[in-house]
Specification:
The chain is mostly helical. Helix content is 61%, strand content 9%. The chain has a three-stranded antiparallel β-sheet. Strands 4-5 form a two-stranded antiparallel sheet. Mean pLDDT is 80; it is low at 1-7.
């Protein structure tokens, strides 16, 4: 298992991707690239365990393209490295269904919401970066509003 950020990326993630791609769906790397819009070289590095911190949009795209239930893929991807057993905000966003105006959020909207959360946690937010980060946040919020 390899660590990155607040999560430990399980070695079984790449194995599961490769298993579904080759054995279940009978796809080449190039075919999966066309379906998922994720480069074949990136997928190959994920499968070999060389790339250990895929973004959530990449994970969702691969899951959808391979028809792997999100919960199955996410269970193999992330294992919290915290020992207190408390879920992180990202864990809650990934594992829960949310409703807005009595409608369940789409996969795309949930993915963007997770991306916004990760951006807020990771941004520097200082005098030199504040304007750029505020602009980037506003762009993500526009994407979220368009997705709901």
């Amino acid at each position: 298992m390899k660590t990155g950020g607040g999560f430990a990326v399980a070695d079984s993630f790449g194995i599961l991707i490769r298993q579904y791609r080759m054995k279940v769906k009978d796809l080449s790397l190039k075919q999966l690239e066309e379906l998922s819009q994720v480069s074949s070289s990136y997928i190959n590095r994920l499968e070999r365990g060389e790339k250990t911190s895929p973004s959530l949009p990449v994970v969702f795209s691969l899951a959808e393209s391979l028809e792997i239930p999100y919960s199955v893929l996410m269970a193999t991807l992330f294992q919290t490295s915290e020992s207190n057993g408390q879920p992180s905000i990202s864990d809650v966003l990934i594992q829960s269904n949310f409703f807005l105006n009595n409608q369940e959020l789409s996969k795309e909207a949930r993915s963007i919401l997770i991306m916004i959360n990760e951006f807020l946690v990771d941004c520097e937010w200082n005098t030199n970066t504040k304007v750029k980060e505020l602009y980037m946040l506003s762009e993500m919020l526009d994407e979220f509003k368009a997705a709901i």
